[in-house]
Structures are given as C-alpha cells and as structure tokens.
Amino acid sequence: MADSARAPTRPLAVVRGACPHDCPDTCAWEVTVDAGRAVGLRGVKEHPLTRGGLCAKVNRFLDRVYSPDRLLHPLRRIGPKGGGRFERVTWEEALDLVASRLREVVDEHGGEAVLPYSYMGTQGLVQGASIDQRLFSALGASRLVRAVCGSAPAAALRAVQGGTKGMLPEDLRHSRLVLLWGTNTIVTNLHLWPFVTEARERGAEVVVIDPQRTRTAAAADRHVRPRPGTDAALALGMAHVILAEGLHDADYVERHAVSFDAFRERAAEYPPERAAAITGLGEEEVVELARLYATTRPAAIRTLIAIGHHERAGDTVRAIACLPVLTGAWRDLGGGLVGTTAWAAWAPLDLDSLQRSDLVDPSIREVNMVLLGQALTELEPPVRALVVYNSNPAVIAPDQGRVLAGLRRDDLFTVVVEQFLTDTATHADVVLPATTQLEHLDLVPSWGSVYVTLNRPAIEPLGECLPNSEIFRRLGRRLGLPDELFADTDEELVRAALGSDDPLLEGITWERLLADGYAKVAVGDDWRPYVDGGFATPSGKAELSSAALAEQGLDPLPRYVPAVEGAGTHDPRHPLQLLTSKSALHFLNSSYANLPRHLQAEGEPLLDLSPGDAAARGIADGDEVRAFNDRGSVRARARVGDRVREGVVALPSGWWPSLSPGGTSANALTPARLTDLGGGAAFHDALVEVERLGEPS
Length: 697
Ligand SMILES: Nc1nc2c(c(=O)[nH]1)N[C@H]1C(S)=C(S)[C@@H](COP(=O)(O)OP(=O)(O)OC[C@H]3O[C@@H](n4cnc5c(=O)[nH]c(N)nc54)[C@H](O)[C@@H]3O)O[C@H]1N2
Ligand SMILES: Nc1nc2c(c(=O)[nH]1)N[C@H]1C(S)=C(S)[C@@H](COP(=O)(O)OP(=O)(O)OC[C@H]3O[C@@H](n4cnc5c(=O)[nH]c(N)nc54)[C@H](O)[C@@H]3O)O[C@H]1N2
Ligand SMILES: [Mo]
Description:
- This protein is an alpha/beta fold.
- The protein has 4 domains: 12-65, ADC-like domains (N-terminal domain of TfIIb); 75-148 and 350-444 and 451-520, Rossmann fold, CATH 3.40.50.740; 151-340 and 528-551, 3-Layer(aba) Sandwich (Dimethylsulfoxide Reductase, domain 2), CATH 3.40.228; 576-692, Beta Barrel (Barwin-like endoglucanases), CATH 2.40.40.20.
- 29% of the residues lie in helices and 17% in strands.
- The strands form 7 sheets. The chain has a 6-stranded mixed β-sheet, with helices on one face. The protein has a 6-stranded mixed β-barrel with strand order 22-26-23-25-24-27.
- Helix 2 (91-109) packs across helix 20 and helix 9 (231-244) runs antiparallel to helix 12 (272-279).
- The longest helix is centred in the N-terminal third of the chain and has 19 residues, at 91-109.
- The radius of gyration is 25 Å and the shape is globular.
- The two termini are 42 Å apart.
- Residues 1-5 have low confidence and may be disordered.
- One ligand MGD binds at residues 22-23, 149, 181-184, 187-188, 209-212, 214, 226, 228-229, 231, 304-307, 310, 579, 581-582, 585, 587-589, 654, 684.
C-alpha cells in the first residue's frame, strides 16, 4: 500500500487497468508504481460505476500480487497427489514434460482424452479466451461446457425474450420500485448499490426477495423470504393476482406477447393460498407484493446468478421474466428486468477471431464443467490429461469428494496454471506460474456493466511468471501445432477483439482505450429495449409460452416443480435445505481464501441456522457442528439467529478444504446436478442434516 509518509524522490507512474474478477462490477483501477513496484491501487474516480472505490477484497489486491505464497517458478510434483511436495524446474523442462505427456495421450487415445478446465479466474479475454482456446481446439481436446455460473438464467431469458438484453444497471436510478430478486447486491455487486440508493432517495421502495437475511435484505425497505427454490410459485402467484385483479397492461400484452390465454390458465393454477403454501410466505404477502409490483411505475426486477443455481432455475427465471411483460413495465425507463449485461459488453466483441472458433470440431464430445467429478471418475473413454487454468475446481465445483477423488487418480496427468498453490494445484503433476492482472495486458469485458475496460500492465512479471497467453503459445508450438495460431501478440489479440463491426462497439478503439482506460458501449441515453416489443424470439414477441421449448418436448409454460433434492422434497434423514452463497465479503469465489488478511477478516466458516432448527437439535450459538448428507460432511461453528428462515441452513462458499476445520468445505455437500435449462449447476438444491459435535457448551 502507498506509504504517505514517504516523500517520493521521483515521480510515481500511474497506470490504468481493470479489475480482472468474475464480478458484475468490472471496476476500472489505477495502479501507482514506484521504481517498478506497485505501491498503491485505487478505483478510477470518474468511472461512473467504480466512483473511486474498489471493495473489501480488491482493496488488498497488492497483498495478492506480492504474497510470499505467489508461485514464481514452474514446479514438478515429487510427493503424492494432494500432498503439496514439488521441486522447482526450468520452463524448458516443464514445457517439455507437459508437451510430451499431452502428445503421448493424444497419440494413444485421441484428443478427447485431454480435458481443458477453466473458468473466470480472470475475465480478461486475452488471458481467458484466446490462445488457450486455439490450442485446445487444434489439439481436438474434449470441449468444456462452461456452465457453472449464469447459463440457466440466460437460457430462460432466451426462451421468453429471445435473448438476455435488458435494462441498463444504472437505469435503476429511475425506478420507483426495485425488486432485488435472489441477489445480495451489497456483497456481490457493490457498485450497483449507489443506483439503488439514488432511486430510493427519489422515493423508490426496495424489496429483497431472499430466504436469507443478507446485508442487502437488512438494508431494504421490505424483505420477502421464500423457501429456496420456490420462486416460480411466487412469480406465478403474483401473476395470478395481477390477472385476477385486472392489473396487467392489456395493450402491451396484446401487441407484444404471444400465448396470453395459455399463460393466464397456467397462472390460474397458482392462487395466493397455493403460492403461499409452496413458498412458505403469507397469502397476504403474495397479494401485496403483486399489487405493489403491478401498480408502481417504473418497476424494475434485478436478478443475477443465485436463482440460476437451482434445479428448476429455468422455470423460475421464465416465470419472473413474464412479469414485466404482463405489466408492461418495459415501457418505462427504469422499468423491466436487469440480469447480466454480457449482451452489451461481452458478446459484441470479436470472440470468434480471438478464439478461432472456426477450429472447433462440433463432433468432439462436450464435457460440462459442473460434472467434473463424474468426468474424472466415470466418463468413458476416460479423461487422461487435465489442464486447469483460471479456476480452482477442488473448491468451487459441486460434489467436492468426487472431484478430489478424480484429481487423486494416479493415471491422470494434470497440469495447473496458477498464481497460487491451490487445493487443485496440489494435485498437479506440473504447476506453471501465471502473472496477475498487474503484470499482463488484457481487455476486460463485463457481464454486469456496459463498459469495456483495457488493462495495461503496471509492473514486470514477478519471478518467472508468464501470462496464460504466452504459456499456451509456447506449449502450442512445442506440441507442433500450426504456428500461425500462436503468432498474435497480446496487443494484436486486443485489437482483434475490438475489430468487430457490432454497432454497440462503435467508436471503441485501441487508441481510445489507451487514452481513457474504459469506454461505454453505444447504448444511447433512453435505453428501453422492449418499449415497442422487438423481442428476439422467433415470433418477435415475448413468449409467455415458449415455442422453442415446446419443440424440445418441454413444458412451454413456466410452472413450479419440486426439486429432486431440495424445494418440496421430503427427506427425513436430511430435512434442511442448504444454501452455499457468496456471503464472504473478502473472498471472490475461492480467490483470496488463502491470504492471511482476507482469512482473518472472515474468521472461520459459520453455519447459519434458525433458532427453531437449532433448539430441535440441541445446538447453541457458537457450538461446533457438522452438516452432512450422503455426499459428505462439513464442520463449522453454528451461528444461531434470524439470518436464515426455518428449514434452511447456510454455509459460505469459497473456503478451501485444506484450510477448513474438517478438511472439507461447502461443496462437499452440493450435488453435481444440472438445471432444467442451460446445463447449469444446482448448487443450492442440497439437503443436509446438522448435528452438534462434542459436549454441549
Ligand atoms: N464478495 C463476493 N462478490 C462476488 C462473488 C464472490 O464470491 N464474493 N462472486 C461473483 C460471482 S462469480 C457471481 S456469479 C455473483 C453472484 O451474485 P449473486 O447471485 O447476488 O450471489 P449469491 O451469493 O450466489 O446469491 C445471492 C442470494 O440469493 C439467495 N438465494 C439462493 N437461493 C434462492 C432462491 O431460491 N430464491 C431467492 N429468492 N433467493 C435465493 C441467497 O440466499 C443469496 O443471499 O457474485 C459475484 N460477486
Ligand atoms: N457452493 C457453491 N459453489 C460455487 C458457487 C456458489 O455460489 N456456491 N458459485 C459458482 C460460480 S457462480 C462460479 S462463477 C464459480 C467460480 O469458480 P472459479 O472461476 O474457479 O473461481 P475462483 O475460485 O476464483 O478460482 C479462480 C482461480 O483462477 C486463478 N487465476 C486468476 N487469474 C489468473 C490468471 O490470469 N491466470 C491463471 N492461470 N490463473 C488465474 C486464481 O488464482 C484462482 O485460483 O464457482 C461456482 N461454485
Ligand atoms: Mo459466477
């Protein structure tokens, strides 16, 4: 951190960049550099979302960069997998070893025996979606389906709206009613909160719909607490009231929606008493929320990712997306629905050139990252080589026990490209050290803002670290793959991404980004994407009943269906619904969960449970407890109180098993089960029992 007491004897350099994290905010930052060392980091003041402030995690990003635990040299494992014993090797040795083993696997078993596994350790396109993709496509490796995060909500919105296009996040400032539906804005999307506050100052009411009393729920005007996984029933119950009381916008529906009658019949199946029975809310609560929503204008719904982490996520998000169509909320600036913004600040970039999508062979098998445990232990023909980068599956993938069993396979050759010796990296045969955002160039798109940001390197790479792009370039050449795939420099890759002719990117050039650091996509001032219809469905209208889903043999209308394990399921051995949200303010998924100051700020993993559920199990606040089901067991300290509703318990996600009390963490309990749409992960449909450990306190 900058030391204000020290008077610099030379001018400090200030370098603009972008926070690399998988977070909706995509902050623009400024790094202060003194004699080659980063000494300060702050948010860019005039950036309309960053507003000069970062967050609890990233304020200490320099701890991450200069951590004594940074990987600085290539390593080769010398002990058992997971044991953490490695020896230093040169880049030459490491890359020769990796290339020769991958070549062997491909020659003997075909490219599909290689599985690349990555997610969004960095959102940057150069370090996350460029040379790496070219290499694995050219090798004919199994194709990873990267569906662990927002794929279910996206698929649901495509069914109703034809795409994910929606309100601009900053237009929440114009709303008179904001429903934060299954999202913990203050913790997971901090830089959106000022717009919510601004709306409130102008008289808006803020409602949080969340089974947990989060920081955001505590700060709202109203907190609605359904049972997890029952929101489809809530939304359909609201639709029932809206239609029964004639509060819908008949003109908007008539002109811009299809299948109104079929939808009306479906909604009729969810009178408030039924919606209340399913959700565990009061009947009056459902009625009031429906009236409030339908009679306040502009009315906005903010959804993000968590409601997509349920088995019936598709039904849920479809039901929710029908509401602004019914009420015509889309007519207003500040009305409608705001989900992710990848349609604006990600998809328009020229990803095809970056990744060379032309090299993708669609006949090669796909492996959904959600099912990694299964892929490593059961899939035929087997995965024989695994290359992990930008992700830490030992922590973040569901069914941790199975994932770790796969990673421990002695016949699996594993390469991990990392900044730290994570719980995944300890299982690698070869670990390759990667640069951090301060040390490499990148172009950072966004899924939560409508800005594109350039990240310029501020310092030289530490130790022998290399950017992912360079590691994959060297590896690709060593594998004897066509040289032309690896010829582009990082700057050329950024320029290629910007080379798209999408009108949203108009005026966003390399030169402009060099000068300003970031740029807003061309969305215009009065962004009301569906004010005159214009939905991107085949019918051109909002599909309250989806023709595309009917074609796939699915119920074209949204409905509430109990989960296989979760909402509406009765399992006397495991009666509690478990949520494993991103409640750790100082972690970003599993990142930072190994750094002393971040860990210290979090304390220890706490299991939230309600007073009734605690009493029934003889558990007092502060007791050591164990949550368990047939997949695993996790130790934590009980926090008894009002944070969760009865029947629900919660553990924070992100803790590394190796740094957790019982050697396992939240995902030891979660199922590797796919969502109804989009192939997402049903993390939050897990049932557990909880018991006290040791003597009563
Ligand atoms: N501090 C911090 N910020 C982050 C992250 C992080 O790890 N740490 N991760 C980033 C990433 S990758 C993502 S995807 C986003 C996610 O952002 P969010 O989707 O906002 O985050 P979650 O914590 O997954 O879930 C938010 C809330 O949804 C509630 N919820 C769960 N199930 C249900 C349900 O069935 N119905 C309703 N109504 N609510 C439900 C949970 O109780 C939780 O409080 O956050 C990003 N920001
Ligand atoms: N139980 C439960 N599980 C969850 C979730 C949940 O809510 N509950 N959320 C899910 C969601 S929404 C998501 S998005 C995933 C997130 O899962 P991941 O994308 O795996 O996220 P991280 O845990 O942050 O791991 C990213 C890793 O990338 C590394 N990294 C960062 N930058 C670079 C780089 O430039 N090069 C290389 N080589 N490595 C780099 C970091 O050091 C870190 O170890 O987790 C999912 N898992
Ligand atoms: Mo995510």
